[in-house]
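As a warm-up, study this chain.
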Amino acid sequence: MPLKRPIFRWETQSGEPVTHGDVRVTPVARSLYIGGLRAGAAWARPAALLVERDGRTQRITVPDITRRIQMGLVGLGAAFTLVTWAKQSRDRSENT
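Now compare it with the structure written out below.
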């Protein structure tokens, strides 16, 4: 019986730490895997940096500017579609 794998799988992975002097920086990435038995896709993005200094660890979040721009464009497209639909609907009601 084949093993069942999840269709969606989120993973958080740490990269190789880089040390400079007394500071150690470790990159952290989030990955989303989507797939079935024969095909799939992966999407990864940087999530944070772990900075270790003087025995303390600080997590610095990395903003995903590309995703923000993409969501803004999707929102703009949806708004444009709604305005166009409303205008066409109004024009049809005025012509009848």
